Model the fold of this input.
Amino acid sequence: MRVLAIDTALANCAAAVLDDGAETACFEACAEEIGRGHAEALMDMIGEVMAETSTAFADLDRVVVTVGPGSFTGLRVGLSVARGFGLVLGKPVVGITTLAAIARSAAPHDGGAPILVALTGKGDEVYCQEFDADGFPASQAAVRSLQDLAGDLPEQIRFAGSAAYKIVDGLGLPRERVLSINGFPGIRDVAELGLTADPVVSSPSPLYLRPPDAKPQTRGRIERQ
Done:
């Protein structure tokens, strides 16, 4: 299967082509930590990886895209491009969460304690989800405060993600429990998860764990008759 993977959910902007059907898996990626400007950078990255792998869009079997948690603007860019390709090509589009991709990279596969993947939120909040030692989800993604986590974490749980040290320091836990502090997923992890994801279950819909800060303007509105 040959997939095009796209990630614009967080500070990184990345695209990759992964083909697991070759004798040696073919993988080509272009990525840059840019913070903003995903819309301007993404199409060039896609063009680059498609050219480097001599892949025509018709050769793709599916498109993979990160669905969050992440920035509202970044998610819209990636999802719009992925859905557009899927519609034009008539190919399935699957969504992969940033938390799952980070867990895949950090998972030690040692049969040990679970992992809490956590991304930095506002104040003492984090966007997090628990995974087992093999990187498989063990809970639903949620917004949690440090106070909330303090009384609800499994014993010896380990941590990954940009908020890992924020949690262990805030709760007085050993720093040795931190497996990774990646603030965004690796595009290869996104692509590999996308190879086996079920399009029916893993839809390309944004995973918003909290409402946007911007609210519709109410002053000066004209009532409809």
Q: What stands out?
A: DSSP finds six helices and ten strands in the chain. The two ends are 55 Å apart (CA to CA). Strands lie at 2-7, 12-19, 26-33, 62-66, 93-96, 115-120, 125-131, 142-145, 158-160, 178-180.
